[in-house]
Design a protein that fits this description.
This protein has about 200 residues and is of the alpha+beta class. It has 6 helices and 9 strands; from the N terminus they run E-H-E-H-E-H-H-H-E-E-E-E-H-E-E. Keywords: Redox-active center.
Length: about 200
C-alpha cells in the first residue's frame, strides 16, 4: 500500500488455464521470493472468495507445504461478499486505461508486458539501489537520473554504470555495487548480467 508495488503474472491460455494449480504455483513462487528476500515469520494473504482460485485444497496444501518448509506462519483471509474492492483492482484499472490508449495491436500475451511496464514507476527501486551503492562505496557520487517512465540510469563519477531501459527486470543490486566500486577505483564499467525478480510499482 505504501510503496504502490504490484506483481503481475501473465500466461497464455494454452500453457495454463484457470485451474487452481496454476494460481497455486504462481502464488507459491511469489511468496518464495518474498520469503528469501525479507525472511518473514508471518505472512497474511487477503483473497477474494473465488473457490477455484483461492478457497480450495490445492492452494491450501501449497501454502501449508511452503509454511512447513520455510518455518513461517501463513494466514489466508477472505474478503466479505459485497466488500471485495481491493488494491489489485486499482492496478487492473491503471493497466486497462493504458490498454485503451494503446496505438498498436496485441497479438500475443508478451505484447502485454511492454504495456504493463509502461505504467510502472521504478523511482523507489532506483533510490534503493543508490542506497546500496553508497553503503559499499561511500565516496562515490551516485545519481539516479529518471528518464521516461520505467527507466533510469546510475551514474558514478561521470560514467554511466547501469542504464535500465523500460523492462520488467532490475539488476542485481550487489553486482551493481561491485561494479561501482571498481569504477570508483579507476576501472572501466563492465556489463552487469545479474538480474533480480522485482515487482512493478504502479504510479
Amino acid at each position: 500500500m505504501k510503496n504502490k508495488e504490484a506483481a503481475c503474472y501473465i500466461w497464455h491460455e494454452e500453457n495454463g488455464g484457470l485451474e487452481s494449480d496454476v494460481f497455486a504455483t504462481s502464488l507459491s513462487k511469489h511468496l518464495m521470493h518474498d520469503i528469501d528476500k525479507f525472511k518473514p515469520t508471518e505472512i497474511i494473504l487477503w483473497s477474494v472468495g473465488c473457490g477455484c482460485q483461492n478457497r480450495c485444497l490445492t492452494l491450501a496444501n501449497a501454502l501449508l507445504e511452503l509454511a512447513i518448509e520455510n518455518n513461517v506462519t501463513i494466514k489466508q483471509k477472505y474478503l466479505e461478499v459485497g466488500h471485495m474492492q481491493m488494491e489489485v483492482d486499482s492496478i487492473h484499472s491503471v493497466i486497462e486505461k493504458k490498454l485503451r490508449g494503446r496505438k498498436r495491436d496485441i497479438f500475443v500475451p508478451a505484447d502485454y508486458v511492454s504495456i504493463i511496464s509502461g505504467v510502472c514507476d521504478y523511482g523507489g527501486h532506483c533510490l534503493a539501489l543508490a542506497k546500496t551503492i553508497r553503503n559499499s562505496t561511500p565516496n562515490a557520487l551516485v545519481y539516479c537520473k529518471r528518464g521516461r517512465q520505467g527507466s533510469f540510469e546510475v551514474e558514478v563519477n561521470n560514467k554511466i554504470v547501469y542504464s535500465k531501459l523500460q523492462t520488467m527486470a532490475l539488476p542485481d543490486y550487489e553486482e551493481v555495487a561491485q561494479v561501482v566500486n571498481e569504477v570508483s577505483q579507476g576501472n572501466e564499467p563492465r556489463q552487469i548480467k545479474g538480474q533480480q525478480p522485482i515487482n512493478c510499482a504502479i504510479s
